[in-house]
Amino acid sequence: MVDIHSHILPNVDDGSGSTEESLALLELLKKQGVTVSVATPHFYAVRHKLSEFLERRERAARILADARSDGVPAVRLGAEVSYYEGISRSEEIKALVIEGTPLLLLEMPEAPWHDRVVDEVLRMNDDHGVAVLLAHVERCLPFQKKHVIERLAEGEVLMQMNADSFLERGTRRFAVKMLRDRKIHMIGSDCHNMTSRRPRLDEAYAEIRRRCGEDAAAWLGAVEDDFFAAEAVR
Ligand SMILES: [Fe+2]
User: Fold this and answer.
1) Is 234 within the bounds of a domain?
2) CATH number of domain containing 70
3) Given 125, 145, 164, 213, which residue has the most CB atoms within 10 angstroms?
4) How far is CA 62 from CA 55, 69, 136, in A?
C-alpha cells in the first residue's frame, strides 16, 4: 500500500521534528501495511525558493535514508504544493511532482473557488506531464458549488482524502459518500508526528471496507497501481 501524503521527513516543515520521530513513523506505517511512503513536505511559493526547498528536502531524505532499517517503507519524494494565482504558468511545478509519477499534490484554499481558480487547476492538469491530485479534499470540497465539482471531475482532476476523514464524526458521512460515488482516488495518512497526527491507515481501511465494501478498497488499490505498480505490493 502507498501512503500518498505524509510529513515524515525530519525537520523540513511542521511534520516530524527529529530523525527518531521519522523512523518511528515509518515503523508505524509499516505495521499498517504501507510499502511506499510518499514524503510531501509543504511548499509555499511565497516563502520558499524552489532550489532551496529541493535541497532541504534532499538533505532530510538522505539523513532518513542513512538511519532507516531494512523492511520499512520505501520513501518517495514529493511536495504538498500550496495553490497560488499564476501557478499554472509556473515552470517550477514540474520539479515538485511525486518522484516517478506525474502526480502533483495540490493544496487548495478552504473557501469557495472562483471559476478562474478552477480554470487554472484544469489548465495545470492539461499541461503535459502533470496530473493534479487535490490534497485532503474533505477540507475544501464541501465549500464548492456543484458545478465546480462537476468541472473538476470532467477534467479528470484526481482527489486525495485523508484517512482520518473516515474515522471522525464530522467528516465520515462526506468521505463515505464520496468514495461510494468513486469521486475520490487516493487515501493518505497526512501524518505529521507520533502524537496528535499519527497515521491511522489501518483503522481507516477497516472502516472503508465496512462502510463502502471490499470493492471500494480494491478500487483505491487499482488507482494506486496505475501510478506505483512496481512498488505498491499490497
Ligand atoms: Fe499535509
Assistant:
1) no
2) 3.20.20.140
3) 164
4) 11, 13, 27
Q: How far is the CA of 192 from the centre of ligand 1 (A)?
A: 8
Compute, in angstroms, the gap from residue 190 CA to the centroid of ligand 1: 5
What pLDDT, in 10s, does the model give residues 85-112?
999 999 889 999 999 999 999 999 999 9
Which amino acid makes up residue 41? P
pLDDT digits (tens, 9 = 90+) for 140-181: 999 899 999 999 999 999 999 999 999 999 999 999 999 999
**3 with 38: CB under 8 angstroms?**
yes
Bridge partner list, 6:
191
- Give the range of the structural domain holding residue 164, as residue numbers without chain letter: 2-228
User: Ligand 1 center to residue 163 CA distance, Å?
Assistant: 12
- Ligand 1 geometric centre to CA of 146 (Å): 25
Measure 188 CA to ligand 1 centroid, in angstroms.
9
Kindly give the distance from the C-alpha atom of residue 12 to the centroid of ligand 1, in angstroms, as a whole number.
Answer: 12
